[in-house]
Write a structure and sequence with these properties.
The chain has twelve helices and 14 strands. By secondary structure, the protein is α/β, with parallel strands linked by helices. It has a domain of about 200 residues: 3-Layer(aba) Sandwich (Isopropylmalate Dehydrogenase). A ten-stranded mixed β-sheet has the order 2-1-3-12-11-4-5-10-8-9, with helices on both faces. Helix 2 packs across helix 4. The longest helix has 19 residues. The two termini are about 20 Å apart. The structure holds nicotinamide-adenine-dinucleotide (NAD). The site of nicotinamide-adenine-dinucleotide has 20 residues, from loops.
Length: about 350
């Protein structure tokens, strides 16, 4: 197939890890007979330095015309001045908006070789393989909010959780379709015992589950219970779908399960147009330029891009398998090395992935 990818390296370790993911994509193209074209765009602090804008129009244009966008990370101390006119993170929020990305997918998978790095016991966490769908453009983060001063000198603040039926339906369908391709189990998380918005989620999701996805095993769990279940029995979940605020908190909680931030990719999808793929971690300014960053989360994000934006499942699985096989040989970057394990550089780790893919 022909596909065009936009690479947005960003700041800190972004350029180092995106360059390695590109090597992996190029090899996949050669091995499977695809024609991949790459364009590179500016975002974040690097874009502010070059143009004064964290998301130049040229970047937006490139991204909207692409099949997939692979982002490194944005931000760093250089752009942290609270009085600055703009910040790198503004570029990230805007690209999500420009591309209409309403669903954030976060796979949480433990690698058997790294399970001992998890804060949980091996017997609890081993085998965890969850795919979160977090609604990204609605809910309390985007509803009306207010701050008013009261006659007694105090203040009253409010933030409102707002959802329309279609916002719930579109992400539920994505999640239920993903469940069909996985272990066929879908968990919807809400707070329907208290919140009106959650009661709408529950009604709309129950209706869709019964009418469009009767073959998918469906359950609902209250968010407070879910916070506990994720720690006590994470292996009992397959696909989880939830609204924005609950998803924000639960996915961060779940990101601790595998024990290393350097291993976790994420994808953000819209109704049409390209998805945005990135590692969950930030720009790691403390190790930028040293050549020691773990490239695996970004390489796994590239696998998600092939799966979700190009429907290249076999190619995505090949990358995921290569990562697993390389870890099984004991290969480690500094962030995941233990004891006397030899520590590999960013490039050396990628070399092993490429060799496993040959
Ligand atoms: P961080 O994820 O960048 O780093 C946290 C710790 O993990 C650091 O010690 C870092 O060295 C380490 N780490 C992260 N990724 C690694 C990798 N691939 N390999 C090895 N070690 C890795 O989080 P932070 O320090 O809180 O934030 C740094 C900057 O990144 C801030 O400016 C923040 O705003 C930004 N940030 C950006 C994104 C994004 O672009 N999506 C996300 C989170 C944070």
């Amino acid at each position: 197939m022909d596909a065009t990818f936009v690479l947005l390296p960003g700041d800190g370790i972004g350029p180092e890890i995106v360059a390695q993911a590109r090597r992996v994509l190029e090899l996949i193209g050669t091995r499977f007979g695809h024609h991949f074209v790459f364009h590179t765009g500016l975002i974040g602090g690097a874009a502010i330095d070059a143009t004064g804008d964290p998301l130049p129009d040229e970047t937006i244009r490139m991204c909207t015309e692409a099949d997939g966008v692979l982002l490194g990370a944005v931000g760093g101390p250089k752009w942290d001045d609270p009085n600055a006119k703009t910040r790198p993170e503004a570029g990230l929020l805007r690209i999500r908006k420009e591309l209409g990305l309403f669903a954030n997918l976060r796979p949480i998978k433990t690698f058997p070789e790294l399970v001992d790095a998890s804060p949980l016991k091996r017997e609890v966490v081993e085998g965890t393989d969850i795919l979160f769908f977090r609604e990204l453009t609605g809910g309390i983060y985007f509803g009306p909010s207010s701050l008013e001063e009261l006659p007694d000198g105090g203040y009253r603040a409010s933030s409102t959780m707002v959802y329309d039926t279609h916002e719930i339906e579109r992400i539920f369908r994505l999640a239920a379709e993903a469940a069909r391709r996985r272990r066929n189990k879908l968990t919807m998380v809400d707070k329907a015992n208290v919140l009106e918005a959650s009661r709408l989620w529950r009604r709309v999701c129950a209706e869709l589950a019964a009418t469009e996805f009767p073959d998918v095993e469906y359950e609902v769990v209250l968010v407070d219970a879910m916070a506990m279940h994720l720690i006590s029995r994470p292996t009992s979940f397959d696909v989880v779908v939830t609204e924005n605020l609950f998803g924000d908190i639960l996915t961060d909680e779940a990101s601790m399960l595998p024990g290393s931030l350097g291993m976790l990719p994420s994808a953000s999808l819209g109704a049409e147009g390209p998805g945005l793929y990135e590692p969950v971690h930030g720009s790691a300014p403390d190790i930028a330029g040293k050549g020691i960053a773990n490239p695996l989360a970004t390489i796994l994000a590239a696998a998600l891009m092939l799966r979700h934006s190009c429907q290249l499942e076999e190619e995505a699985v090949a990358i995921e398998r290569a990562v697993q096989d390389v870890l099984a040989t004991g290969a480690r970057t500094a962030d995941i090395a233990r004891g006397s394990q030899r520590v590999l550089s960013t490039v050396e780790m990628t070399d092993l992935i490429l060799a496993a893919l040959q």
